[in-house]
Amino acid sequence: MELLKIQQIEKYYGSRSSLTKAIDDISFSVSKGEFIAIMGASGSGKTTLLNCISTIDRVTAGHIFLEDTDITTLKGKELNKFRRDKLGFIFQDFNLLDTLTAYENIALALSIQKKPAADIDKAVNRVAQQLGIIEVLKKYPYQMSGGQKQRVASARAIVTDPKLILADEPTGALDSKSAKMLLERFRSLNAEQNATILMVTHDSFTASYASRVIFIKDGKVFHELQRGDNSRKQFFDKIIDVVTLLGGDVSDAL
Question: Domain total for the chain?
Fold first, then answer.
């Protein structure tokens, strides 16, 4: 079932005398339950694309549909409600509130939705169990490792059961062990909970956990890879081949 449809979107920055085209006629679809990585060099337009899908930024032309809603037309309270109810955000720098415990950070999204306390407690403990962070629920961000903070941020993103989880370089601030643990959790959420994940990354190892990789170059879709029956290692090797074609530094991709 088609969940997300990107239809000929364009995004310009600057004034008439000095226009920069960050996104150039991009179209693709995401099915419910897909785990997709978007890759590209710095300045390729991948983060701008994610910002437009997440409604942080607005497209200059084209349309983005989530289910039957054209999100490019939403404004004000409608837009706030859409973000709150339909999307889950995971950022590279965690964006946790320092004055709240892990439990309170995760519960906040449900509190905003005015869920009953008993339902909030059940939901927080469920996602904490899934992401292996039960032991840090009473801790504050300064008492956690980077990997724990990112898993708390991930729990906050998925606790509302959003239609779409958007992740912007989720492993960028993590060491290799923490990154692998987080990606395994993402894969489990995708496989077991049928979570739909759209992840921006510059890292080939991170992208190899996805089921499909879309490569962006100069604001356009450059190439696309499906994992299919390949092992993660085989898929990683194919991703490296495309990164090389893109002109990227493979040592950086590793």
Answer: 1
